Structures are given as structure tokens and as C-alpha cells.
Amino acid sequence: MGAEIQTFPPEHLKERFDRIVARYPKRLAALIPLLMMLQREYQHITPEHMEGLATYLGTTPAHVLGVVTFYTMFSHRKRGKHHLYVCKTLSCHLRGAPGVIRAFEEKLGVKAGSGEATPDGEFSVDTAECLGLCEQAPCVLVDGQRFGNITPEMVDQIVKELSR
Ligand code: FES
């Protein structure tokens, strides 16, 4: 185990882990919700998390790795405390998503999709395929919540609100 986690599940998450696993007829079915919790808690999934989770759920680290690398919501690199996705699919692209992406990159000083977080660890930006809010394009997903009709001029305010 790495320095970040000595036991698995980490002591402060153990009760929540056990509660989630108890909801499913098979332990392995809890894999994605548990990965989501680890991603939220540590802003990334480490090899130690994958090994620990594999043992905890009775599967292999390779199986966990397969799930982690399949879904873009999981990351090996530490994301910011606030992670933003800007939709880059057609409706959003045509209605100004490239300008919104540029505005976030300029404001935060990180490249979208680079996996980098701002030096203070507060923000990271990614692009995403359709977020299912095409009628309000361009759309941004901020900490799991979708916002539509975003313009580059709104970026300063969004970052300011999240920094509070
Ligand atoms: S194309 Fe952006 S939300 Fe659907």
C-alpha cells in the first residue's frame, strides 16, 4: 500500500463502503459507486486504490483497471477539487464551445484534457462528449451538475463562485 492509504477501505470511508456493498446482491456490483467515491475523495484513482478495491470486492486489480480506464469520470492523474467538463459535441461546438474551452484555459492556466490541475489544486478542465443538454448548448458539467447556455464571458463568474 502507498503512503496515502495504509488500510483499505480507508478508515473514514469504511462505513460508507460497507453500506454501499450491502445494497447489492453481489459485492462486485458496487465497483463503480465505490470508484466514484474514491475519485471524489482523492480526485484520482491510484494503483493502491485499485489493488485495495480488488481485494475488498473479490476481483483482480486488472478488472478494476479495466473499469477505471473505460470511463472518463475516473482519472489516474490528480484532478482539481472542482472538475469541469465542457461539452465539445456538435450542438455545443456550433454554439460556441471552443470559445468557452479557451476562456477556461486562459482563466485557469491549464489545458483542457491535459489532466493537469491548477497549482493550488482547486480546478481542472476536460472536454466531454454530449452531456445531454443540447437544447441549452453550450453546456458545462461542474462537479457533476450541468449548466447550459454558457458563454466565455460567464467563465470568470463561474470560477469566482466555485472559489468561495
Ligand atoms: S451536444 Fe453538448 S450537450 Fe449535447
CATH architecture descriptor text of the largest domain:
3-Layer(aba) Sandwich
Bound ligands: FE2/S2 (inorganic) cluster
The helix/strand class is alpha+beta
- Main β-sheet: number of strands, strand sense, barrel status? 4 strands, mixed
Q: Which runs of at least 5 residues are low in confidence (pLDDT < 50)? A: none
Distance between the termini: 35 Å
Helix content: 40-55%
Q: How many H/I helices? A: 7
Task: Tell me the strand order in the biggest sheet.
Answer: 2-1-3-4
What shape does the CA trace take?
elongated
Q: Give helix and strand order, one letter per element, not per position.
A: HHHHEHHEEEH
Estimate the mean pLDDT confidence.
94
CATH class of the largest domain: Alpha Beta
Q: How big is the Rg? A: 17 Å
CATH superfamily of the largest domain: Glutaredoxin
Estimate the strand proportion: 5-15%
Stated plainly, the CATH topology of the largest domain is called Glutaredoxin
- Strands, count: 4
What number of structural domains do the residues give? 2
